[in-house]
Specification:
It is a single chain. By secondary structure, the protein is an alpha/beta fold. It has two domains: about 280 residues, Alpha-Beta Barrel (TIM Barrel); about 100 residues, no CATH class. It has 16 helices and twelve strands. The chain has an eight-stranded parallel β-barrel, surrounded by five helices. A two-stranded antiparallel sheet has the order 1-2. A two-stranded antiparallel ribbon has the order 4-5. A hairpin with a 2-residue loop joins strand 4 and strand 5. Helix 2 packs across helix 3, helix 8 runs antiparallel to helix 11 and helix 12 runs antiparallel to helix 13. The model has no long low-confidence stretch (mean pLDDT about 90).
Length: about 400
């Protein structure tokens, strides 16, 4: 196992982190016996960074069980506070205390605000989050503070510059160099001295699936044969700015492959030929995409509130092999599904004012492309999902918050 130093904390962290969102399932729940065996086996082989969250159903409790019997002392534990469940300053302490109870520990090594935008950060500050962080650090419940985000580079820089963060967590992979925070965000955070944890290195698993023939043919040209998943992970590890790469591991074969690769992947270890090969794969994927959006966000803000880059990202993802998953994520991240509210940035909100066209550096006819995206992303199947998904998520969020606060009071 290779390790890299989190500069702000001095911790030597395994370059492969264990992402505990997609644990193996058994029926409607987590396959506890299998998940615990997988996690402990990975720790035994050098993984020392585990990532979970309050919003991952059953995950924190499972991780708490897995880390019993001496395993807690072998790892750095990361979990997240969801802003959508915070209504008051007191909620922050209540939710953290419940997390500590579930995880069977007295402290969280790496605590994050979960999936925040700059607006979320401003709201949390108004509720007193900086006081919460200071007190939780002082009494030892939190060791280090960071945030995760799917926001664009503008929001990302504002969040970083507004507080003394120690680390951040961003999405980054061979297809997302310019989406969300992207490479610019990775380099900006590293230049500020922050540790950078990478999520979605396989883009929700789409880069690990059997690729289209034209892409498979390119991979097959490599002198050293690797799976698409290993190529994608090695490309992220090749960046010296990256501290930890999270993998949502839930299959023994995949875990072993990831562990082997993590024992070899030094920064800059890809040869010039291999880097060129990866660039050809990226070009081949990009040719399959419908819109040449780079995610620069010069088109924003939209007068109608459309999250143009996010809509185009989802539109392009439809052609990477997982349309149903893409539509669910579209509803979740663009359609307001995360908090059960009404749509807040969907393609169908476009009023064709044309202001975005004048600002687009790629000269995209944005209103026309948004109409096409609307047709493919917001069909009857998506609307049916929305009718079910929004009330379900709203109910889940409400019940989850009530349940957690109730547990905190009982304690």
């Amino acid at each position: 196992m290779q390790y890299r130093t989190m500069k702000t904390t001095g911790d030597e962290l395994s370059i492969l982190g264990y992402g505990c969102m997609r644990l193996p399932r058994k029926g409607v729940g987590i396959d506890e016996e299998r998940a615990i065996t997988q996690i402990r086996s990975a720790i035994d082989q050098g993984v020392n960074y585990l990532d979970t969250a309050l919003l991952y159903p059953g995950s924190e409790a499972l991780v708490g069980k897995a880390l019993a019997g001496g395993y807690r002392e072998k790892v750095k534990l990361a979990t997240k506070l969801p802003p959508m469940q915070v209504k008051t300053r007191e909620d922050m302490d209540k939710l953290l205390d419940v997390q500590l109870q579930k995880l069977q520990t007295d402290h969280i090594d790496y605590y994050l605000l979960h999936s925040i935008s700059f607006r979320d950060w401003q709201k949390m500050k108004e509720l007193g989050v900086t006081d919460f962080i200071a007190r939780a650090k002082a009494d030892g419940r939190i060791r280090h503070m960071g945030f995760s985000t799917h926001a664009g580079i503008a929001d990302f820089k504002q969040i970083i510059d507004d507080y003394g963060w120690e680390f951040c967590q961003i999405q980054y992979n061979i297809l997302d160099e310019t989406n969300q925070a992207g490479k610019a965000g990775l380099e900006y955070a590293a230049a500020k001295g922050l540790g950078v944890v990478i999520m979605e290195p396989l883009r929700g698993g789409s880069l690990a699936r059997e690729p289209p023939k034209e892409i498979r043919d390119i991979w097959d040209e490599a002198e050293v044969k690797r799976s698409p998943a290993e190529w994608a992970l090695r490309w992220v590890w090749d960046h010296p700015e990256v501290t930890v790469v999270l993998s949502g591991m839930n299959d023994e074969k995949h875990i072993e492959e990831n562990l082997r690769a993590a024992g070899e992947a030094l920064p800059g270890s890809l040869s010039a030929k291999e880097t060129a090969l990866v660039n050809r794969v990226k070009e081949a994927y990009n040719k399959r995409l419908k819109v040449g959006c780079t995610g620069c966000q010069y088109c924003l803000p939209c007068p109608a509130g459309v999250n143009i880059p996010a809509c185009f990202e989802s539109y392009n993802n439809l052609y990477l092999g997982s349309p149903m998953q893409t539509k669910v994520m579209y509803l979740t991240h663009v359609g307001g599904g995360m908090d059960g509210k009404s749509p807040k940035g969907m393609a169908s909100q476009c009023i064709s004012c044309g202001k975005c066209v004048k600002k687009c550096t790629q000269h995209i006819d944005i209103p026309a492309e948004l109409k096409r995206a609307t047709k493919e992303l917001e069909g009857m199947d998506t609307k049916a999902m929305a009718l079910v998904l929004r009330p379900v998520i709203k109910t889940f969020m409400g019940f989850s918050r009530w349940s957690n606060v109730r547990k905190a009071r009982a304690k």
